[in-house]
Specification:
It is a single chain. The protein is α+β, with helices and mostly antiparallel strands and 113 residues long. The protein has one domain. Helices cover 19% and strands 28% of the residues. The chain is built from three helices and seven strands, in the order E-E-H-E-E-E-H-H-E-E. The strands form three sheets. The protein has a three-stranded mixed sheet with strand order 5-6-7. The protein has a two-stranded antiparallel sheet with strand order 1-2.
Length: 113
């Protein structure tokens, strides 16, 4: 995926996130992100949404549920990926859920390999 860096009317730099990432739910408006530069490239880490395999999810289940429920922690959803299917872990409290999950239609997740 490619994107461009643009400048707004105040001279601030803006990084456009490709629409495919918004459609997948991996990046949503208002997410907390962290940037780091490693080996000549920029890494963008979404602190509000993490992706993990089922085995790692099982090991970290208690801490994940505590962090999702904690208002001071940025994590608000987890995409758990298995060999045959994937599922979202979101807060049970409707006030903490993002509008992306209010829709009744299933979301297609693209596998990027």
């Amino acid at each position: 995926m490619k994107t461009t860096i643009e400048t707004d009317e105040n001279g601030d730099m803006l990084l456009n996130i490709p629409p495919e990432l918004f459609d997948s739910g991996l990046f949503l408006e208002g997410d907390d992100v962290a940037f780091s530069a490693k080996h000549g490239c920029i890494m963008i880490e979404n602190l509000s949404c993490i992706q993990m395999r089922v085995s790692r999810f099982r090991r970290n289940l208690n801490s994940i549920l505590k962090n999702i429920d904690n208002d001071k922690h940025p994590l608000d959803r987890v995409l758990v990926q298995g060999k045959r299917s994937s599922f979202w872990v979101i807060p049970h409290d409707k006030n903490k859920q993002r509008a992306f999950f209010w829709k009744n239609e299933p979301h297609e997740l693209e596998q990027s390999q």
